[in-house]
Protein: 4959_t:CDS:1
Organism: Funneliformis geosporum
Amino acid sequence: MKSLNDPSKLDRFSSSLSWAKKKEMFGNFVQALKILHESNLVHTNLHLGNILFNKSSSEPSQSTQKIYISDIEMCRSIDEQGQSISSKIFGSIPFIAPEILKGGIHTKSSNIYSLGMIFWCIISGELPYTLYSHDSSLAYEICKGKRPTIPSGTPKDLVEILNQCWESDPTKRPSINSIAFTLNWSMVSDGESIDFYSENLSQHHPNAFYSGRTIDFDFALFDQLKPYL
């Protein structure tokens, strides 16, 4: 098993895939998450490093075979989640939905936000916010509406899915079934190519983290934010 939680590996993998292969891969991501949601479970640490591929997935022709969601011990029943707000969050900030950064509980909609960020990584060949310190300042900007730039040349249907997944208001995000339906009927052309980012892959902020970790926030920093700004 391998993940793509490595900048150079992710860049090579993304650039080797056609749009049709990326769309097929997204469909497999969706089916994996759909199994959890249909079991009334949410993943509380969903990020690119927890998406695993079989060993043959490094080959483009095998890229959509056997995709797994790992760190299953971080799944929680929606009915059993505590309602109290804690100042400690566990996860990777770029993949955490804004309502969670504000101290909310994990929901299916917060998983959809994380899924959109995983899609973006495969599309762009980049990890999100590599030049930023992954701290409360970045969390604050995300809560105000900051999102990664979608690369030029991305098919319109995929752009719409990303923007819907990244809605600040979780009630406006699509369900996993809706995303599956959209992908099934979307028109994704292989005639377009994207402008891959030209940033040096080695230029990462020393405090950019892409694995789950405990994060201690002072939610008072976010008090001035309007809901779903």
User: Anything to note?
Assistant: The first helix runs from residue 7 to 15. The chain has seven helices and six strands.
